[in-house]
Fold this sequence. Notes:
Elements: H1 8-17, E1 21-25, H2 29-37, E2 42-45, H3 49-52, H4 64-75, E3 82-86, H5 96-108, E4 114-116, H6 124-132, E5 137-142, H7 148-151, H8 161-177, E6 181-185, H9 189-198, E7 203-206, E8 214-217, H10 219-222, H11 240-257, H12 271-275
Parallel strand pairs: 1-2, 1-8, 2-3, 3-4, 4-5, 5-6, 6-7, 7-8
Helix pairs in contact: 2-4, 6-8, 8-9
Bound molecules: 3-methyl-2-oxobutanoic acid.
Amino acid sequence: MSNGRVTTTFFREAKKDGRMITMLTAYDYLMASLVEKAGIDAILVGDSLGNVVLGYSSTIPVTMDDMIHHIKAVTRGVSRAMVVGDMPFMSYHLSMEESLKNAGRILQEGGAQAVKLEGGREVTDVVRKIVAAGIPVMGHIGLTPQSVNQIGGYKVQGKEEAAAKKLIADAKALEEAGVFAIVLELVPLQLARMITEQINVPTIGIGAGPYCSGQILVTHDLLGMYGGNKPKFVKYYANLNQDIIKALQSYCEEVRHGSFPAPEHCFNMPEDVLSKL
Ligand code: KIV
């Protein structure tokens, strides 16, 4: 940590000392400050912003400007946790110059301390370039939602021998390119363990079992803010979907019946002023 802020050194030492790293997503000031108060080590402003906040059916429509807007809101609510900003679809593919410029915006305009990008060996050149500019990069392999159209859906990755070997090679290539940590998304727990044991940088799992160096979830998922089916890898720590709907229904009922606002929610005019009106 420097000035009390979680840094890449914290990540490295946590893995060396066998301390689990905690990470969650946030997309706005209020949620970021709540997550920070809970004592989280790092906050990802994920491009899951697209699904969770912007109502898209995938992360693909999310733009750099969307990301910067939300990263700025998050960094205003955080002083200890490391803030990692996701590089959205096509923001690190067109040219080295464009990729570097976009990574720079996430730190310079957004105020984040690191960026995350998806992919294995195919992104190591761009990782090297961004790291060489002094920007910490977090890798992301396994299920990479920006490639959902190529992968053919949101499903567990690396279950076959060739795919598993490719993920191990990708993790090693990312480490060699200079990432400070790697997100492993939706991979079998045995493969996540193997990758974690074969590289020196920490792995952060989501749907990757307990043998990673840390865990991340989408905060809205663990708070149970969605109705509908719960993904297998998510645990609900609250049921805010039902709690919020109930609270909002009570408000509607009380307004309709005139029981809100009650006297304690109202302001009185001073009697002497009132008498003159
Ligand atoms: O965008 C995101 O929230 C992510 C996490 C699920 C790792 O990439």
